[in-house]
Amino acid sequence: MEFAVALAGPGVIDQAALELGSVAIGFGPFVELVSAIASVLGFDSLVGALRYRVPASSLHGLSVHLTAGTLLWLAGWAALAFGLRSDVQVAAPKSDAVGRALHPKLGNYRDFHWGTLAAYGFGIFLAEAGFIVMYLLLVGKGSTSGAAVEGGLSPVWAFVWAFFLSMAMAGAGGFLGAANSRRLSTPEATMAILYFGTPIPTLLTLMHFFPAGMLRIAVPLREIAYLSSMLGENRPELGYWLVTAGLTLALFLGINFGFVATSSGRLDLRASYELFVASRHVSVFRWKLLVGVFLVLIFGIVPPLIAWAIVSAAEAAVERTRIRLLGLQDPLLAAEAINDLKVRGQTPTAMMTSLAVGGVGVGVMALIIVLSVMSGFEADLQKKILGTNSHGVVMKYTPDMPEFEDTLAKVNSVRGIIGATPFILNEVMVSSEGNISGAMIKGIDPKTVGSVTDLAEYLRLGAGSLDWLDDPSKIQARRLAPLGGAALDEQGRGGNTSRAEAVDGGEGEAPPPKPKGFVSDVERDPLIDMPSQAAEAEPVLPGIVVGRELAATLKVVVGDRLNVISPLGGELGPQGPMPKSRPFRVAGIFYSGMFEYDSKFVYINLKDAQTFFNVKGASGIEVKVDDIDNARSILHAVYEKLDGYPYRVKDWGEMNRNLFSALRLEKLVMGIILSMIVIVAAGLIVATVIMLVLEKRKEIAVLKALGVPDGGIVKIFLMEGLQIGVAGGVLGLVAGLAWCIFIERVGIKLDPQVYYIPALPVRIEPFQTALAVVIAVLVTFLASIYPALKASEVEPVDGLKSE
Amino acid sequence: MGTPFLEITDVHKSYFLNKKRIDVLRGVSVAIEQGELVSLIGASGSGKSTFLHVVGTLDVPATGKMTFKGKSVFDLNDAGVAEFRNRSIGFVFQSHYLLPEFTAMENVAMPALILREDRKASLVRARELLERVGLGHRADHKPGELSGGESQRVALARALILKPDLLLADEPTGNLDPATGEGIHQLLREVNKDLGITAVVVTHNEALAQSMPRRLRLRDGHIVSAEA
User: Within a 10 A sphere around the Cβ of A485, how many other Cβ atoms?
Assistant: First the structure.
């Protein structure tokens, strides 16, 4: 009977509306997402071959699904609003209190606040939209993906500012929402994030996966896509969600601040007694704990454990002997000593605290060491790459640049350019008596090349001189062994002595051969000519500089002859172009430390290259800039100075994109993996603070009875988590730096044959190191928010009753 | 007569045992004048402690109104309620509920610290107060090292450090032997007489109740005069 009444009552309809509404809201975006993904997948499998053509039908299907989902979503809101709006009917018997006003605190309990939902929802939605708009505005219109234009900030700074401002927006939304309801309003926050926060990133992600959508929306948003692909390492969708996660975090922080500020009626940021209480609760800053954790971080777990076991065993032995002697004199004094011993025993929370400090410390230490080593590798690699290669190149869309001298002057006049040199680059084969190898040949201007690359310095590590390229007559010809069975053997021995000679200097006992115009030497067949030539005075040949590895492969030393063979550029033979060959004399051997360069690059004089490859002028200009991190914009200025087309510019980042992006990705992944340690440590902190809260329930109740507001309790427990985080962070920092300095000073040997570096490189980057500590402390702070809020929810009466 | 010092009207409060509602206070109304020393007696489970918790804002009743010096207390926000507990109310419970990590002196000073008064001055005042309750020599001991009677005297000193308007004592001698309990009672009467602090003492002890000028009894969820 009662059931029938209840069924007929209007409350049931409202209840149904509420449930239906929430289901529909949830299903709306789900339908949108699933149908969109389905269309994408179907599209791919059906017409995979035509994947970049856009059939109108698939776009149509998507829009139908999206519309349906959106309508369902809106209908859900309507149903929810209807269900929440209506009155509740009570069928229960009436109590004495009918007609009396409910206590204000109870009256506010678990009410649904539309205003709060609106504040949260619009906060996150506007923050996302605002981020896009602000970024586009800040980076300036017409930016060509990456290069800053006049009036616009560089992409990095635009991102930082836009992100900062939109985080402030999300935070403000959270603050206002929580201030409106005077509590955390978790249901409102969840709805806001799911139903208002996800549409924009979902849309952007779909846009990326869905070519039709990309064509529709992507053009005005290409800067955002570019930015996101930078954030997510060429996976824009990762970037979108990273930004969304950041904004959600800001919303969350805003909600917490809003709650703490308004539930108490005012925002009180002072922390006098809170800190006093917190530091007594956790007592992290005890020298025993700190030294113990530090030793564990430095030496690992086992040695300090053994030391501790020895010390405590000795201590216990001494103490027991003392108690026994005391017992012989006064049994009661002995009983007191035994009690003291018991009291001194550690509580479980003290143990947990040490573990949590150690966990954070290990995380921070590992982050600092690994990131520093990776930075060391990166810096080393960068140094080597930028030593051999330039910071940027200026090229033309045509193969030659006959007017390179004018261009050189123009390039040199751009601010930020500190060196420029012309070059000709080609691929050739290099052959010696003993061997043959492919190589990149570069025609350089020996006078100016030093202003751009470190080639001269690398030659000092090897042999020979760059000047000999200009004046090949100075190269001391080495008498070649006659071809034959003993040739290789003798060459090996000869190589050693001759290298030593070459290091001694340019002029030796043998008089320099009489200069001859090298024209006469052109196009000789080395196999036929050489034995007879070698017996006489060596002809003067143009100089060539080769890398150490290539020299080893070709079995040549300074003064030896090499033949450079180009498949192109020769005369036309009966079967097409004939390969062209020309002898050179090794003028120097360089050592850069990069296997790839030492085994691949050879250098000749620019003039020789011009005639050999039939190039007018140069094929491009290499430049050096004063600030390598700003190379992109300096080169853009060069581009503007040269009036753009037909010139084009490339900076070192673009030229070595694969290598550096692989390195950055590796660093990012390592950072993420190591951050897991910090997250585990944060879990430890959550557990520790929750244990503290459970252990201190009674104290929390007493403190509340003494007049501590909820915000004060939150602050106390936040500070407890923060103390653990700061102690762990500082210990990790000190231990990490100690390890880095150890690695740097003492060194960890690497096999130079494999790594090309004799010892593990370390580079402590202050910003990155500080970031590791700050992030760890921030994570621990965030981790303690939840237990701190739980602590503030302890009702004084419950805490006082529990005993 | 004007507005009373403390006026409670129509307070309803229930608690729950396994989803079963037990109505403890069913429309309690009472007025207390400034400077009164009131005892509250009643059977076990009659809601004496609940009443005291409601007055001390430790517990939230379902309905009701409470005015203190003419101000409605239940309408205050969290900070206002906390300030009310801090400045206007002093609690003494059956257990001492001292904070174990702090010395007796620091425990006594805690309400002043919560009010953000200067730490040194607060500690000096706490020591003076401890001397007045006869515990000057135990000021630097932690609660674990104090006896039951000593702890309760420290708790009383803590309740008094900010000179509250109203002292709420919930069976302060319930855990003590009669002799020690009598000492606490003596202190309570002194506090009421010398400092002029209004006090409400919940007790089981009929003899103690008889020694108080005004006696109230809680019966069937209502407060009546003990003589009735």
Answer: 7
